[in-house]
């Protein structure tokens, strides 16, 4: 079965200027994926008639379905409806049902229906009206040579209600979609190119109807397997077999599947093992603790943290020896070892984690450039350290370090 192809067009100068973020296209893509439609392109167009008409023609050429958001307001800069009238070469007329709906909308709010608002009920006579239960601009459905155009408001809550209640059910009734199944495999502690090299033979053996995508992030790489076919159950079985074949090649880096982030996986393991965690984080400034405590129930395993950003705080509040700081500096292996061991002892925790480094853009020395960061793991059996050599970007360094620290816990948790 061939996939049903969709293009999403988002219309409005405000999207191109960056004044409004196009969350609609992302949301539509997610919802269509759930029901088996394949989005092949998302395009943003300004409020220019010629550009809108060109986008319509290109989308019709490439896709079976064209979903349009924005440009349906009552003002002169809203061009979507006039462009649709021109593109489909049909006239507009007041739609009685649409007029009743917009009249009732204003009446319920105690507001006068102006002529400008009345014109929102003027629809192309060649379209099917789609009711807008939360706004004044109706949606429009066009059929042309087996292709479907759907125009919806750009206001997110209006568009979402329209999509879920009316558009998606109509699309499912008109088009038969193939079964589609995704499996996300989450890895950490290995770069994209190194991972690709390790699993290259496995990747080459994938059948044609199952595709692999690499989705790199901060310190981790997600592998997405996407299968299409006639049966969702068969696809799931096939992909499960492929995942089992992947484990001997990359199992040491695989920490989870689906949408579950690393901090949740670590938290579940700590809870299961009844282990308590405490943290001393300097360069990450509390970000690691934020990740951990953003998870409901983290009090089951997280005791607390100290953020000893200053030298004096490292000595007086945390307890790092002055001679260690004087001899080696705050960004050093001896200091990070003391930080991890001390915070574990102070909180009477099973595990202590510490971070210290130069996040940037200042603070570098000739032997310790920006991005030099030490992290450490401590339990009653051992202390493990790791030196990170990262970038010139402060926020990147902070976020990457937090992921690396979480992975250090994963790698060293007691069996």
Compact description:
With 415 residues, the chain is an alpha/beta fold.
What do these coordinates show?
By secondary structure, the chain is α/β, with parallel strands linked by helices. It has three domains: 5-174, MoaB/Mog-like domain (Molybdenum Cofactor Biosythetic Enzyme, Chain A, 3-Layer(aba) Sandwich), CATH 3.40.980; 179-257, 2-Layer Sandwich (Alpha-Beta Plaits); 262-412, Maf protein (Alpha-Beta Complex). It has helices at residues 13-16, 23-34, 49-62, 80-88, 96-108, 115-118, 156-174, 192-198, 200-204, 232-250, 262-273, 287-293, 311-318, 322-328, 333-346, 394-412, and strands spanning 5-11, 38-45, 65-69, 92-94, 122-124, 128-130, 139-144, 147-152, 179-188, 210-216, 220-229, 254-257, 277-281, 302-306, 351-357, 372-378, 383-389. Strands 2-1-3-8-7-6 form a six-stranded mixed sheet, sandwiched between helices. A five-stranded mixed sheet has the order 14-13-15-16-17, with helices on both faces. Strands 10-11-9-12 form a four-stranded antiparallel sheet. It is elongated. The chain starts with a strand and ends with a helix.
Q: Strands, helices and their partners?
A:
Elements: E1 5-11, H1 13-16, H2 23-34, E2 38-45, H3 49-62, E3 65-69, H4 80-88, E4 92-94, H5 96-108, H6 115-118, E5 122-124, E6 128-130, E7 139-144, E8 147-152, H7 156-174, E9 179-188, H8 192-198, H9 200-204, E10 210-216, E11 220-229, H10 232-250, E12 254-257, H11 262-273, E13 277-281, H12 287-293, E14 302-306, H13 311-318, H14 322-328, H15 333-346, E15 351-357, E16 372-378, E17 383-389, H16 394-412
């Amino acid at each position: 079965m061939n996939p049903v192809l969709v293009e999403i067009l988002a219309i409005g100068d405000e999207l191109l200027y960056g004044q409004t973020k196009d969350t609609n296209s992302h949301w539509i893509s997610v919802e269509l994926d759930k029901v088996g439609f394949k989005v092949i392109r998302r395009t943003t167009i300004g409020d220019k008639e010629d550009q809108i008409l060109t986008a319509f023609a290109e989308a019709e050429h490439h896709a079976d379905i064209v979903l349009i958001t924005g440009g349906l307001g009552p003002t002169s800069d809203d061009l979507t409806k006039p462009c649709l009238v021109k593109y489909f070469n049909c006239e507009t007329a007041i739609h009685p049902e649409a007029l009743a709906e917009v009249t009732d909308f204003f009446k319920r709010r105690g507001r006068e229906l102006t002529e400008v608002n009345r014109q929102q009920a003027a629809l192309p006579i060649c379209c099917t009206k789609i009711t807008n239960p939360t706004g004044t601009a109706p949606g429009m459905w066009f059929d042309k040579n087996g292709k479907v155009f759907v125009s919806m408001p750009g206001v997110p809550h209006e568009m979402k209600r329209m999509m879920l209640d009316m558009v998606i059910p109509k699309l499912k009734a008109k088009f038969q979609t193939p079964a589609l199944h995704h499996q996300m495999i989450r890895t950490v502690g290995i770069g994209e190119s190194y991972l690709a090299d390790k699993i290259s033979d496995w990747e080459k053996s994938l059948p044609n109807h199952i595709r692999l995508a690499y989705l790199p992030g901060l310190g981790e790489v997600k592998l997405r397997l996407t299968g299409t076919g006639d049966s969702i159950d068969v696809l799931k079985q096939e992909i499960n077999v492929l995942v089992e074949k992947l484990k001997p090649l990359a199992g040491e880096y695989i920490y989870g599947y689906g949408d579950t982030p690393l901090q949740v996986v670590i938290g579940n393991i700590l809870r299961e093992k009844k282990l308590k965690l405490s943290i001393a984080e300097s360069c990450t400034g509390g970000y690691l603790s934020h990740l951990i405590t953003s998870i409901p129930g983290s009090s089951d395993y997280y005791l607390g943290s100290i953020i000893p950003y200053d030298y004096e705080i490292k000595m007086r509040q945390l307890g790092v020896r002055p001679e260690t700081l004087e001899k080696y500096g705050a960004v050093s292996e001896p200091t990070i070892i003391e930080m991890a061991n001390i915070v574990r002892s102070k909180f009477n925790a099973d595990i202590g984690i510490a971070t210290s480094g130069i996040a940037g853009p200042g603070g570098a020395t000739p032997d310790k450039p920006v991005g030099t960061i030490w992290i450490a793991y401590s339990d009653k059996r051992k202390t493990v350290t790791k030196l990170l050599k990262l970038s010139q970007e402060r926020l990147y360094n902070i976020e990457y370090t937090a992921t690396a620290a979480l992975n250090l816990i994963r790698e060293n948790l007691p069996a």
